[in-house]
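STRUCTURE:
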């Protein structure tokens, strides 16, 4: 199976996916917003900073293809979206669920719900001093990791047959998570 990482250019994150789990396709904003673009992915990852125009030009492309993102999830796709790294409102308005994100970098002591396989995202990290770029104040799902302020930094949201994961964690996902995330059938994007 293949996982896609949506970003402005190929980066270390792509190599991490390839070394940990499976082939990884780099999808740029220009390609993503093209009406002819189609892909088949076991999962899609959108790294930290997508909402900050100082870091990335991805946000307009995500908004342009929001319908395809919703269909991808409805049909069984998996989407991991990290923190926007920007305090401006509406950075998640391209998702098919209502999200409110509070941007504030800091280290937190986490409480983790291990009943979901997606909580493995933070396996191997010190959860008593875990870096995040904020938390989610409004979401339509189940918190999997919560900071000491009772605000979630990892949320699982069911969308149709698919799974949307929201992570304000400021660390790369674990190898165990990437292996699990890359499993399953590819879904058309």
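SEQUENCE:
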């Amino acid at each position: 199976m293949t996982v896609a990482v949506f970003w402005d250019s190929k980066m270390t994150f792509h190599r991490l996916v390839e070394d940990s789990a499976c082939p990884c396709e780099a999808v740029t904003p220009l390609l993503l917003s093209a009406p002819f673009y189609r892909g088949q992915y076991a999962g899609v990852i959108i790294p930290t900073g997508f909402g900050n125009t100082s870091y990335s030009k991805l946000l307009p492309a995500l908004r342009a293809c929001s319908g395809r993102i919703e269909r991808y999830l409805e049909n069984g796709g998996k989407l991991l979206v990290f923190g926007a790294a920007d305090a401006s409102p509406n950075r998640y308005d391209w998702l098919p669920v209502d999200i409110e994100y509070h941007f504030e970098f800091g280290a937190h002591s986490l409480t983790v719900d291990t009943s979901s396989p997606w909580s493995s995202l933070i396996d191997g990290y010190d959860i008593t001093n875990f870096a995040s770029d904020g938390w989610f104040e409004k979401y339509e799902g189940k918190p999997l990791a919560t900071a000491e302020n009772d605000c979630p930094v990892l949320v699982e949201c069911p969308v149709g047959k698919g799974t949307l994961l929201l992570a304000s964690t400021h660390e790369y996902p674990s190898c165990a998570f990437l292996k699990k995330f890359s499993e399953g059938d590819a879904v058309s994007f």
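REMARK: The helical segments are 12-20, 29-32, 58-64, 66-74, 175-181.
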